[in-house]
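Hello Y.,

Per our agreement to keep a running log of every chain we model this quarter, I'm adding this entry. I've kept the format consistent with earlier entries: sequence first, then predicted structure.
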Amino acid sequence: MKVKILFFILILIGMGSGCNGNQNQLDNYNDLSISQVHTSKPIDQSVANHAKEKIIAKEDITDVKAVNTDKELMAAIKVENFDRFRLKSIEKSVKSDLEKKYPDYKVFVSTDKKIFWELENIEQRLKKNDTNEKNLKNDLNKLKSLMKEQT
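Predicted structure for the entry above:
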């Protein structure tokens, strides 16, 4: 009899701790954060940082990467799997919002994963001061040509 009660208590403890771990994973998922690129060399990235804050506030978007030159702003966004059916409309919405907010910049927005990864690499190089203005512009030109190929 005591063995059955002890076994029952162990099962309850096991179930309780198993469910608790899933809740922590959900809490981490809801804490979306974006990486800020603080650098003035080669080009100040404050426009890209402000754009990221504006973009990530949208409920459909789970992550964003953005880089700017003196005349261009390029952003790549990730959306939740369910929202992948509406990629084009989300992309257009983000682009129009950024064009209104930054009228002096030519805005490029993509939902493509390759563009996202490439922008992430550029952000990392900017953080490490491992690029110059010419290389940054060349990298963004390559990404623009990739974006044109995919349309």
